[in-house]
Recover the amino acids of this structure.
């Protein structure tokens, strides 16, 4: 992004909405997998829990997350993956997350934006280690 | 003040730069930038070795810088070790206790230490099965002499504390603390992390009574990559070099090496000569400014900014109103420090948001991160007012009011 772009443009209405009213901001009773990650920049933590059935994410929840960018990102990601197959979700990239956020992210804040994606990947890896890989057919 | 800081003419996002991250690193005046470029342009050579004119010149300037640094903190030149910063200085001292510390020995630090004065001691204690004793802060006074007195034991070997906190800005009663420790047992080694002290107030290491004192040039108008370890003459023998190699030896044979005498053996490898000479220029400026005067100015503007921020609803101030040395940590209800810092940046205001390399202190304050605005000699009341305005504006972005 243009380094001269003021940060103000990050704080669009939808970001603030997801920050103040995060979706899936709760705990799962019996998660099939969970993972916790820390943003080294600020020490903030995000925990993501998954419930999986037949290779699909049937429920997802998150806790923690500090700044507006990291919380909105967790909220948008969890919203976006519910009901989708593990195989599909594993293909998610950094660009997909940035597309979900739909705001210019300054390089220093990328870590905040991408923490949840990393935590999600770890949660899926843990799930697959425990339950074996999902069948694709 | 006629000093000029070229960077302060910069525009950030079209706005005047208001630089308030001085506790992380200060800006450099033209005099220091010129000293660096003048050295490279006209005197550049390696020191201590060459017999040719340039090398002699460079060595003379290097030696003069060491004398200036010594004078500035009331030490002797042969008590000054150049390092690359406070962190390396503290690591040299911690490393030196590798052989001297035994299982069950105790090292006292405070919960307010910068990681630079925490992690090396924690690691040493882990390796040596020694005990790290972490002093809590007093709610009112910060550093607590009472807590220190209670923590001192027959097993205490080292006490390490910062003279000024990089988060709260408040000063430790360092002289009283040293006296208390000496009275308890004068064989205890005392290290003071002076990274935020030398830049903010007059320092006299001889009067303080510590064995070791560490600081960094870049926090006091000087270049990056230069720091100082003051080591009291009588403590020099207890130090072990951390960096082995060239420039720190008397002689090397296939079977044996004899290290240089005195401070030389701690300055292994080619040194940051230009940086040290730039540091000399920086100290010259601080001497002209007068540290007692600067200390008063920074505390005045610190209280002024504290008062302005305290008028904004939802702002919690972690630094004390008085005696904060222009270092003001704060939180804004409902808004993460990163978001505050990003929004302030759009106004051209540079503040720090995060844990400030002091996670144990964050834990003690019951927060994981906070905002920190830190002032220096070029900051004005106008900057403090801009800070207050921008925090109000950030609140508007988030809460609409
Ligand atoms: C109190 C304190 N101690 C130690 C340090 C570490 O200094 P440096 O990074 O220059 O080694 C700092 C600065 O970050 C500091 O504020």
């Amino acid at each position: 992004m243009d380094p001269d772009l003021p940060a103000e443009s990050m704080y669009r209405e939808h970001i603030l909405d997801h920050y103040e009213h995060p979706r899936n901001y709760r705990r799962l009773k019996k998660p099939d997998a969970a993972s916790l990650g820390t943003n080294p920049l600020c020490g903030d933590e995000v925990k993501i829990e998954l419930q999986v059935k037949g290779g699909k994410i049937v429920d997802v929840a998150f806790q923690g997350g500090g700044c507006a960018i990291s919380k909105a990102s967790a909220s948008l990601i969890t919203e976006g993956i519910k009901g989708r197959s593990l195989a599909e979700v594993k293909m998610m990239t950094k660009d997909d997350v940035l597309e979900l956020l739909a705001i210019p992210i300054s390089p220093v804040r990328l870590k905040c934006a991408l923490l949840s994606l990393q935590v999600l990947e770890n949660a899926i890896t843990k799930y697959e280690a425990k339950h074996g890989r999902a069948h694709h057919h | 003040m006629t000093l000029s800081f070229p960077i302060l003419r910069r525009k950030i996002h079209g706005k005047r730069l208001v630089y308030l991250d001085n506790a992380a690193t200060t800006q450099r005046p033209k005099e220091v930038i010129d000293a660096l470029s003048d050295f490279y342009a006209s005197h550049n050579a390696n020191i201590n070795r060459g017999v040719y004119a340039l090398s002699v010149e460079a060595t003379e300037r290097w030696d003069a810088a060491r004398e200036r640094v010594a004078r500035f903190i009331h030490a002797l030149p042969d008590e000054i070790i150049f390092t690359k910063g406070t962190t390396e200085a503290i690591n040299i001292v911690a490393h030196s206790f590798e052989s001297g510390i035994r299982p069950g020995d105790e090292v006292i630090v405070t919960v307010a230490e910068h990681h630079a004065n925490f992690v090396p001691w924690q690691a040493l204690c882990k390796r040596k099965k020694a005990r790290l004793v972490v002093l809590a802060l007093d709610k009112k006074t910060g550093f607590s002499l009472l807590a220190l007195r209670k923590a001192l034991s027959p097993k205490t070997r080292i006490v390490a504390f910062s003279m000024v906190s990089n988060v709260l800005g408040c000063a430790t009663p360092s002289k009283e603390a040293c006296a208390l420790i000496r009275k308890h047992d004068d064989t205890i080694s005392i290290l003071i992390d002076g990274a935020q002290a030398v830049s903010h107030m007059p320092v006299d290491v001889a009067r303080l009574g510590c064995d070791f004192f560490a600081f960094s040039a870049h926090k006091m108008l000087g270049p990056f990559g230069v720091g100082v370890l003051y080591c009291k003459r009588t403590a020099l023998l207890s130090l072990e070099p951390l960096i082995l190699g060239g420039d720190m030896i008397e002689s090397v044979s296939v079977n044996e090496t004899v290290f240089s005498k005195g401070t030389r053996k701690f300055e292994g490898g080619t040194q940051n000569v230009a940086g040290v000479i730039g540091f000399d220029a920086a100290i010259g400026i601080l001497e002209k400014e007068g540290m007692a005067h600067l200390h008063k100015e920074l505390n005045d503007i610190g209280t002024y900014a504290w008062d302005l921020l305290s008028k904004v609803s939802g702002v919690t101030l972690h630094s004390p109103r008085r005696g904060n040395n222009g270092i003001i940590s704060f939180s804004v209800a409902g808004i993460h420090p990163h978001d505050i810092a990003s929004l302030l940046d759009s106004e051209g205001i540079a503040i720090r948001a995060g844990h400030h390399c002091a996670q144990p202190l964050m834990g003690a304050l019951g927060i994981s991160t906070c905002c920190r605005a830190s002032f220096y000699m070029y900051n004005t009341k106008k900057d403090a007012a801009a800070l207050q305005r921008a925090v109000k504006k950030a609140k508007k972005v988030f809460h609409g009011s």
Observations:
- The first strand of chain A starts at residue 33 and ends at 38.
- The domain at 12-128 of chain A is CATH 3.90.1010.10 (Sufe protein. Chain: A).
- The two ends of chain A are 40 Å apart (CA to CA).
- The mean pLDDT of chain A is 89.
